[in-house]
Structures are given as C-alpha cells and as structure tokens.
C-alpha cells in the first residue's frame, strides 16, 4: 500500500540489483562488440521503469501525508482525482465518518447549528437580569421603564439559569470542536484517496508499459519463430571439427 514507506526501500533495492546485473553483463561482452544483447536491453528497460516508479512513489507519498495545515487541495485536483479517475479506474471510496455522513444527508445541518449562539445566550442573560430588576422595582412600588429592548427580550422564549447557560456553551464548544476535527480528518482522507488514485493509475500504466516493452524487446530476437534442426547443426559442427 501507498502508506507503507518500505515501498521506496524495495524500489531502491531492485535498482541496485539491476545495476549489479548490468555490470555482470558488461563484463561478459567483448570490448569491441557493437551490438547490445537483448538481455542488456531488457535490464536497461527494467532499470528505467523502476527508476520512474521510485520517483512516482516519492511524489505519491508526499500526497499521502499532506494535511489541511500544510496544503490546500485545488479544485481541479479534487475534480480529477476524486470524481473522474476513481470512476474510470473502478475504485470505491472508503466509507465516511459518522458525523460527516450525518452532515451530508439531505436537509441536515451540523449539530452545532441547532444550539443557541453566544449572542442568543447573552440576550437571555440580559433578559433575565432585566426581569429580576423589574420584579425588584415592582416590589419597591416603582414602575419599571418599558423600552424596545425589554420588549424584544420578553419575546424570547425560554429561560435559562446561569448553570444551564454554561452547560449550553460547553456543549456548543464540544460540538464545534467535533465538527472541526471531523473536517480535518475528512480533508486528510481526501489527500490519502488522491494518493490511492495515483497509485492505482501508476499500477495500470506501469503494468501496460512493462508488458509492451518486454514483448517488443523479446520479439526482436532472431530465429525466435523459426524451427531449428538440431541434428543438422550437430552434424555441421562435427564436420568442422573433423576437418
């Protein structure tokens, strides 16, 4: 998988092995040879493909470990790697988290939107204080002044005690924190899915390239589809030896 860092180590180990094989082949060839043998061509082709694979893997690891704090995903990348390419490559997106799934439902909204805001809580506190002052003035025999603000506060339904206000603020903070944390996780999952898409595309392209290149190199071999008479060759070799 792309999250496994040992993928780069494996690619570099294969590169070193190919270099050793190329050195052995170069020592076997005569110094004045003008023709490159097929095995050397195949090793060179495999070396180039493996080198490109290591480069793409390094870039892919960069995408896999990105986060919202360091990078912002462009819109074209979101459209290409999250919408179109997964459909073409027949990939299925992993399931979303429960909170994000609830937010994406039709007609639903984030949990914190159902809670009263800080302004509403402040207005409720002011309303409660003014009502207490009005009750105290009525008990003292004074007529409390009536203004537009007090009338607006009186229209707010429900009364909350200071303990309930603090509890509501704590619930609002927790809900907002969970929402931000879920959005952070979802953006990281988007980057990981982009890396998965590139990795799947790399698999298809390199498999196709390796197959076509291997067939092209081996089809260049002379007498590949010609029948060879072994008895005739042995007799010819014996005649040369006897003479």
From TrEMBL:
Any single Gene Ontology cellular-component annotation: membrane
InterPro entries, alphabetized: Neuro-gated_channel_TM_sf (IPR036719), Neuro_actylchol_rec (IPR038050), Neurotrans-gated_channel_TM (IPR006029)
Positions of the UniProt region annotated as Disordered: 121-141
Domain of life (superkingdom): Eukaryota
Keyword list, A-Z: Membrane, Receptor, Transmembrane, Transmembrane helix
One GO-annotated biological process of the protein: monoatomic ion transport
Record field: compositional bias (Low complexity): 123-137
Oxidoreductase recorded as keyword: no
Domain Neurotransmitter-gated ion-channel transmembrane: 5-218
Ranges annotated as spanning the membrane: 12-30, 42-63, 201-219
Protein name: Acetylcholine receptor subunit beta-like 1
Organism name: Aceria tosichella
Lineage: Eukaryota, Metazoa, Ecdysozoa, Arthropoda, Chelicerata
């Amino acid at each position: 998988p792309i999250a496994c860092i040992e993928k780069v180590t494996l690619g570099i180990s294969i590169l070193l092995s190919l270099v050793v094989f190329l050195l052995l082949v170069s020592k076997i060839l005569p110094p004045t040879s003008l023709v490159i043998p097929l095995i050397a061509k195949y090793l060179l082709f495999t070396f180039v493909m493996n080198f490109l694979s290591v480069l793409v893997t390094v870039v892919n690891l960069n995408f896999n470990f990105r986060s919202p704090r360091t990078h912002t995903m462009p819109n074209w990348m979101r459209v290409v790697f999250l919408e179109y390419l997964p459909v073409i490559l027949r990939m299925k997106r992993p399931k979303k988290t429960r909170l994000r799934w609830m937010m994406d439902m039709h007609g639903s909204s984030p949990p914190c939107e159902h809670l009263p805001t800080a302004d509403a809580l402040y207005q409720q506190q002011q309303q409660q204080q003014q009502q207490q002052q009005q009750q105290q003035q009525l008990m003292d025999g004074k007529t409390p002044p009536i203004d537009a603000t007090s009338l607006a506060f009186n229209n707010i339904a429900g009364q909350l005690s200071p303990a309930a206000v603090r509890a509501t603020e704590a619930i609002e903070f927790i809900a907002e924190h969970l929402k931000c944390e879920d959005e952070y996780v979802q953006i990281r999952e988007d980057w990981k899915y982009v890396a998965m898409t590139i990795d799947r595309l790399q698999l298809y392209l390199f498999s196709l390239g390796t197959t076509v290149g291997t067939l092209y190199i081996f089809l260049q071999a002379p007498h590949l589809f010609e029948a060879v008479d072994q008895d005739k060759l042995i007799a010819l070799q014996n005649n040369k030896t006897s003479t």
